[in-house]
Amino acid sequence: MGTSDSLDAVVRELYGVDPGEFVAARDRRAAQAREHGEKDLAARIRKLRKPTTAAALVNTVARRHPDQVRALVSLGERMRAAHRDLAGDRLRELTHERHERVHDLVERAEALASGGVGESVRREVAATLEAAVADEQAADAVTAGCLTSALSPSSDVFEAAWLPVGPSTSRGGTTSKPRSRTRREAEPSTAKPSKAAQNPEPSTAKLKTSTTDAELSHTPTRTWQDTERAAAERRRREAEVQARRARDEARKRLRAAEREEADARRRTERAKAALEQAEREVRRHAR
To answer: What is the mean pLDDT of the chain?
Structure first.
């Protein structure tokens, strides 16, 4: 078994354990790899990130309730077909079904959590499931059960970190190319679960993290590294956007303050003029 295959197997194992046991299990597997002389594999295992609470819950739901998750993915395909065909009535029916299925899976996820979950985690779980409905790549990431953080349906879902395991296949069984973030065309309505959810054996995957056609390395390990870099780039862009917003807000406050200052100067000048006029009147009547 090669290094990439070994890493795939470890990834699937680690992201299926309880989050509280993740670090210990990861360190144990890294130590085992070192004992077998696989230093590179050990180093890669040590770099695997502990999943967030929401990501861990979605991973558990995907592994324990695969049929329900695949039904949600199938619903997304039917919704894209209805949207493509401009079938408004059908789309409304499917939207209602989406709400019900997402709610059901959120309830299942909450039931799997020891001690319950907070509202913010609940929202992240729901958002990740919504992303699986809206985007085929997100669906593959969710069904693979190896998420490290929550996904979002309101942006490029693959800017969130995830660890793909196994290939994403098209309806005909060949490896499909993911869509770029500007492409949201509908896929055929026939639903079939991805091989990432069906086949536990690790294999290769392809991803695109921008609107270009550049493809990343075919190994899941390299895909994870590139996805991590994409996540870092996303965080940088978000920080830049926040900084620009803060700058624009500060600029607006400054302009408002300058207007207030100008108004205050005008009021001051009018008050001075009124005072001078009043003093002249006093002097005139005092003679």
So the answer is: 76
User: In b/e form, how buried is each residue of 22-59, taking b as 16+ CB within 10 angstroms?
Assistant: beebbeebbeebeeeebeebbebbeebbebbbbbbbbb
- CA 159, 163, 165: angle at the middle one, nearest 5? 130
In angstroms, the Cα distances linking 267 to 3, 5, 107, 210, 260 are 77, 77, 62, 55, 10
Residues 189, 168: Cα–Cα separation, whole Å: 17
pLDDT of residue 177: 40
pTM of the predicted model, to two decimals? 0.54
**Three-state DSSP string of 252-272:** HHHHHHHHHHHHHHHHHHHHH
Indicate if the pLDDT at residue 96 is higher than 80: yes
Smallest CA-to-CA distance from 56 within 112, 105, 118 is with 112
Report the C-alpha gap between 174 and 195 in whole angstroms. 10
Q: What percent of the chain is modeled with pLDDT above 90?
A: 39
Per-residue model confidence as pLDDT tens digits over 203-262? 333 333 333 333 333 334 445 556 666 667 777 877 888 888 888 888 888 888 888 888
Amino acid 177 reads K
- Amino acid identity of 230? A
Q: Specify the pLDDT at position 227.
A: 61
Asked if 143 and 69 touch (Cβ cutoff 8 Å), the reply is yes
E strands, 241-284, where? none
3-state secondary structure of 256: helix
Residue 186 CB partners (closer than 8 Å, separation 6+):
77, 80, 81, 83, 84
More confident residue, 97 or 230: 97
Name every residue whose Cβ is closer than 8 Å to that of residue 35 and which is 6 or more positions away in sequence.
Answer: none
Closest-CA residue to 197 (of 64, 104, 108, 103): 64
